[in-house]
Write a structure and sequence with these properties.
The complex is a heterodimer of chains A (about 110) and B (about 120).
Chain A (H helix, E strand, L loop, with lengths): L3 E3 L2 E5 L4 E7 L6 E7 L5 E8 L4 E4 L2 E6 L4 E6 L8 E9 L2 E4 L3 E6 L1
Parallel strand pairs in A: 2-11
Antiparallel strand pairs in A: 1-3, 3-8, 4-5, 4-9, 6-7, 7-8, 9-10, 9-11
Chain B lengths: L3 E4 L2 E4 L4 E8 L5 E7 L6 E7 L2 E5 L6 E7 L2 E7 L7 E8 L11 E2 L3 E5 L1
Parallel strand pairs in B: 2-11
Antiparallel strand pairs in B: 1-3, 3-8, 4-5, 4-9, 5-6, 7-8, 9-10, 9-11
Classes of the chains: A mainly beta (about 110), B mainly beta (about 120).
Chain lengths: ~110, ~120
């Protein structure tokens, strides 16, 4: 069955880069996503990548996809306090999206 | 604003109460979803509705009863819940393609439910 795994916590210093990693099992996934959830809010789509791409960059965000290893990562450059949130990796499975458990990113001064 | 509105944002109920959660999407989407988010299982898909028809029920107990009267509205009727049902209930919508494939989900802000 489908499974998306990611580490639960990450702590980085303000101004450093954050790298959140994720592994997935469904090799036929055509879309892979990163969602962000701020405290007390729902999930918001940050970015997504097609499975035929290796990398996607959007301002401070860089997504890397290694299809061979089924590994997805999200890099946030120059991490700010406003980046504190839970980041969910997800893969598309036909008509539904399967989420990982989320990585809680905390920023220290 | 994501275009998906959930009410109420917070709900406290006893185990014998009957209440409902409401979701409305203003995006013209054709599919709607209920997810449960708790500390034990961060994001569990509960129900999927595609063009008002329920297409998925992930072994959800019958004390949760969904209703989708049209493609813009989704309800979750709650009765005789247990304290372990306390969680954040998230509604989402999407536009499914002609082959039924999903592109992305748009989430509401959730309804925080506490069962006493």
């Amino acid at each position: 069955g489908e499974d998306v795994e990611q580490s639960l916590f990450l702590s980085v210093r303000e101004g450093d880069s954050s790298v959140i990693n994720c592994t997935y099992t469904d090799s036929s996934s055509t879309y892979l996503y990163w969602y962000k959830q701020e405290p007390g809010a729902g999930l918001q789509l940050l970015t997504y990548i097609f499975s035929n791409m290796d990398m996607k960059q959007d301002q401070r965000l860089t997504v890397l996809l290694n299809k061979k290893d089924k590994h997805l990562s999200l890099r946030i450059a120059d991490t700010q306090t406003g980046d504190s949130a839970i980041y969910f990796c997800a893969e598309r499975d036909a008509s539904k999206i399967i989420f990982g458990s989320g990585t809680r990113l905390s920023i220290r001064p | 604003e994501t275009g998906v509105t959930q009410t109420p944002r917070h709900l406290v109920m006893g185990m014998t109460n009957k209440k409902s959660l409401k979701c409305e999407q203003h995006l013209g989407h054709n599919a709607m979803y209920w997810y449960k988010q708790s500390a034990k299982k961060p994001l569990e898909l509960m129900f999927v509705y595609n063009f008002k028809e329920q297409t998925e029920n992930n072994s959800v107990p019958s004390r949760f009863s969904p209703e989708c009267p049209n493609s813009s509205h989704l309800f979750l009727h709650l009765h005789t819940l247990q304290p372990e049902d306390s969680a954040l209930y998230l509604c989402a919508s999407s536009q499914l393609g002609t082959s039924g494939g999903i592109r992305e989900l748009f989430f509401g802000e959730g309804s925080r439910l506490t069962v006493l």
